[in-house]
Automatic annotation (TrEMBL):
Top-level taxon of origin: Bacteria
Organism this protein belongs to: Vibrio aquaticus
Protein name in UniProt: Oxidative stress defense protein
Signal sequence bounds: 1-22
InterPro entries according to UniProt: 26kDa_periplasmic_antigen (IPR052022), SIMPL/DUF541 (IPR007497)
Biological process annotations from GO: DNA damage response
The UniProt record lists the keyword Signal: yes
Length: 231
């Protein structure tokens, strides 16, 4: 098949905004986006909890929050949780006002809060640590994130799957148009900053709740944008 400069053929697979790439080649080419994903079972977790107290004075609010945080931290340490697995925020105290329809705002008390984030190296211990937090006076669970220890290994597998997907699409499209892939001209890769997608099997009752996290799976995804030369 002959190619004429005035009628160069460019085949584009626009599964992503490949057309927005800054540099566009002036020769016959094909652009694809490859996607890859790997399913993994979580084996660790990270959770964030918060204690929030409202009292008449700032000192009372501070003392109440400090007591709950100290009790929880001591409980974690007694279970062998390392200090590098625990992080806590500064104490926040804000005045609370009542706003009547008429007149000036009235100070009615103070609200104090403090957050703690814990990394759980053994997923089976997650529920026990959460119970410890609640028993210590922590009154809010902000976030529970299931993870895998070998995140980099799974990410590499997803990346290789994305590369394979891009190559497969390129070969299929080129063959469909009676052309051949002549090599790679450009690769654009920006690892996604998003967290793995959690697919959780919900517990049916409280007794099975402790096993529901182990029944969950995590989908780790990656993508790569490639421009190929066409012969």
């Amino acid at each position: 098949m002959k190619f004429f400069p005035q009628a160069a053929i460019a085949v584009s697979l626009t599964l992503a905004s490949v057309a927005s790439w800054a540099a566009t080649p002036d020769f016959p080419h094909l652009a694809t986006t490859g996607y890859g994903e790997v399913v993994a079972k979580p084996d660790m977790a990270q959770f964030s909890v918060k204690v929030v107290e409202s009292t008449m004075t700032a000192e009372q609010a501070k003392q109440s929050v400090d007591k709950s945080v100290t009790t929880f931290l001591q409980a974690l340490q007694s279970e062998g949780v390392k200090s590098e697995q625990i992080s806590s925020s500064n104490l926040y105290i804000t005045p609370q006002y009542h706003y009547p329809k008429k007149g000036k705002p009235e100070l009615v008390g103070y609200r104090a809060s403090r957050s703690i984030t814990v990394t759980v190296e053994q997923l089976s211990e997650l529920n026990r640590y959460l119970d410890m937090a609640l028993n210590s006076g922590i009154n809010q669970v902000d976030n529970i994130q299931l993870k895998v220890k070998d995140q980099a290994v799974y990410q590499q597998q997803a990346r290789l799957a994305a590369i394979k997907d891009a190559n497969s699409k390129a070969e299929s499209l080129a063959d469909g148009f009676g052309m051949d892939v002549g090599g790679v001209w450009r690769i654009d890769y920006n690892m996604s900053g998003g967290q793995p997608v959690l697919m959780r099997t919900m517990a049916m009752d409280a007794k099975s709740e402790s096993n529901s996290y182990q029944d969950s799976t995590i989908i780790i995804r990656d993508r790569v944008d490639v421009i190929y030369k066409l012969d």
